[in-house]
Amino acid sequence: MFKYAKRLLGPLAILTGSLVFPTIAAAQNNLVPEQLSKNADIIKIIRAIIQFILVVAFIIAFIMLLVGGIRWILAGGDEKAVAGARNTITAALIGLVIVLVAFAIIKLVETFFGVTIISGTFTIPTVEP
């Protein structure tokens, strides 16, 4: 388990850095829109973080499901390889269920309490020349 976590942390750190550092550089050059740079509302930030985590978790679970399927196909009848592929597929399906349950809980909280956690408007900021 930790072996896979170690393999994942390096690329995840690189991905996070590649997403964070350009934003910092753009903020220093006044390329980020006003509502994101100066008057950032904490609720908007939390909403963006939750949306990002849900999307990334779903994509990772889906990719692991594909990897498990490919490992199963390439196993060639080897029982150990098939068992490993089956475990990967099982873990990916459990991950997908967890992500979908988290999404359902967030939607229930939104419905019952009348708040917008992830249902708010989602716009991609653009830079005007």
Automatic annotation (TrEMBL):
Name by which UniProt lists this protein: Uncharacterized protein
This protein's UniProt keywords: Membrane, Transmembrane, Transmembrane helix
Organism of origin: Candidatus Curtissbacteria bacterium RIFCSPLOWO2_01_FULL_42_50
Transmembrane segment boundaries: 43-67, 88-106
